[in-house]
Amino acid sequence: MPPADGGRDDRSRRHLGAERLDRVQSANVLVVGAGALGNEVVKNLSLLGLKSLTLVDMDRVSLSNLNRCVYFRPDQLGLPKVEAIRQALAVQSPDLKLQPHDCSVEDAPESIWEADVVALCVDSQLARYYVNLNILGRERRPWVVNGAMGRNFHQVQVLRPGETACLVCSWTPEYHAELFSREAKKSCDTFFEEHRAPFPSISMLSSLCSGVISAELVALLAGGEPSASRGCSVRYEQAGHHMSVGRVYRNPRCVEVLCRRC
Ligand SMILES: [Zn+2]
Fold first, then answer.
1. What distance in angstroms lies between residue 57's CA and the mean position of ligand 1's atoms?
2. DSSP at 106
3. 104-158 pLDDT, tens digit each
4. Near ion ligand 1, which residues have CB within 5 Å?
5. 53 C-alpha vs ligand 1 centroid, how far in Å?
6. Of the N and C termini of the chain, which has fewer Cβ atoms inside 10 Å?
7. Does the structural domain 10-169+201-261 have CATH classification 3.40.50.720?
8. pLDDT for 45-75, tens place per residue?
9. What's the gap in Å between 262 CA and the centre of ligand 1?
10. Hey, CA dihedral for 123, 56, 103, 189, is it positive or negative?
């Protein structure tokens, strides 16, 4: 006789415990970026039974997204990424209340910042800068899990601006100035098309990165013993399959004045 089916949450509950799973499911999560990382993070959280998720991205589904974005289909080319994900979740996780925002994070409504945690799944440094500035300007600052992908590595930083290093503590004044000389309002896809060859990217690397992002989000939301990654950066190098964790220290001369004042 096969064991009785314990329901959709059975295995998740066995893994996390009922109380911790309940805390995760009741949380309000903001995911900024609906590309390769955003797809996977939304997938992981929705499969855990999350009930409230806000998703922000201003890009459209393109053919080159289809090698690594689990929710995009060939018949959705040109559709807003957040809408493509909304359609998929309506079938896969109908109980999830998704708030999709087809715009840049700068133009998103104020209500997105009511989130308990923020998953930063972008390849735009301007988006990182804006999220950092916005959180530093608030009294109630959520934890942020920031994912970044390189050609052969990924890095995930767990931080709370104002308490740990902020998202721009490592920037030099020269880098900061150069960034703002670029055309800020273009979508990241358009920027990459015009300024450089398409970035190499493969689904297993984005799955690994978003797996770490999701695990850190769950650790933050579930409560209990704080994750050892808080204030740290977890880096995975594909060549050599090497993973390392290092603390990221606050910069007293951070380019962001609000960070220096905290
Ligand atoms: Zn800083």
1. 25
2. T
3. 999 999 999 999 999 999 999 999 999 999 999 999 999 999 999 988 889 999 9
4. 166, 169, 254, 259
5. 27
6. N
7. yes
8. 999 999 999 999 999 999 999 999 999 999 9
9. 9
10. positive
